[in-house]
Amino acid sequence: MSSTSSVPSRVCLARVQGTIGPATASYLNRAIQEAAGQGAQCLVIELDTPGGLLDSTKEITQAFLRSPVPTVVFVSPPGAWAGSAGCFITMAADLAAMAPSTSIGAAHPVGIGPGSEKQDEAMKQKLENFSTSYIEAIAAKRQRNTEWAKASVRDSAAITAEKALELHVIDVVAKDLPDLLTQIDGREFNGRKLATAGASSVPIPMSAREQVFQIIAHPQVMLILMLVVMYGVIGELTSPGAILPGVAGVIALVLLLYLGSVLPMNLAGLALVAVAIALFIIDVFAPTHGILTAGGVVAFFLGVFMLFDRSEPYLRLSLVWVVPATVVTALFFIFIVGAGIRAQRQPAQSGAGAWVGRVVTALEPIDRGQGRVFLEGEYWNAVSDAPVEAGQAAEILAVEGLTLKVKPVVHSKEVPS
Questions:
Q1: Residue 307, SS3 per DSSP
Q2: Among candidate residues 292, 306, 301, the one with its CA nearest the CA of residue 325
Q3: pTM of the predicted model over 0.90
Q4: 49: which strand partners?
Q5: How far apart are the first and last CA of the chain?
């Protein structure tokens, strides 16, 4: 007589919200491996995204296509959207599901990739053709509606969950996760029948590293990092030895370079920001009654405003960020940097350097070889190219070690030391 023990089935659950980027791709790759390692029936990805980067989207779809565990994308909760990159990811899953009151589509490509500016018509057409063929291949692989998939790219078509089910864009409409697991129970993928009804769900959260990079991969953070780099580096140059501004600037620069490699930036915007900084600094050294500073303010505002592609909501940098950044930067260069540079250019106010120009009284005759004066409570050796009589006033020309170089003050009375 034999007995069998029933082991409850499990599904793994990953949640993706916000922009699709390198952190998302890393997270889903790891989630697939963890789900396979746990022997999960499938990996369910709850998705709500306005879109993201093409490179990261390709990495995710490739991970889905080679996944050893069935992948289920569930556009959820109600009100969620699988837009742009999210449409590609949903179509690439083994099973695509949506909650009521959700939508999918609008996958038309925009300027994507580092350094992308407004593209010419030929480049736009190439990108559109590639995206169309790419989503068509994905839809055909998963036996979904290829005509609608192409329309989502070419015409920015978007539909509701119910319409998507009717057009065979997705496979299931489910009100929540338990309903989804009940509906997909018994479906077969790659010769494997799912047993998901009543299965326990095991969340796979983002790691701390993935969360950090997901948070900082936004235009607002890039703007803040850019300001920290500027203020830190210039602060270190104007106040050598302060250390903290330089360290903060270098750390911000490293993060900025990383984000600049994954988020699309407009090179013309960067150039305008550089021009603005140059104008601010030049106006400090060569005062032009504020003309260059005014030009710098305009250049900085336009540069930051153009820095990112405004056609995508998740890449938009609003005036709420642009205007304060412009004002703070202008004030920083006008008052802080300007005051620091002007202070360095002023003559010394204390120490030996401040004695140049002082008038002292010769205690004994001064010539090129010897002489003495009394200054600041001390006796000093003094020399002069022109003879100075004892008791005559002399002006200090330079301080050379412990000797003062002086010259006689003609037609002046004795002055107290």
A1: coil
A2: 301
A3: no
A4: 82
A5: 118
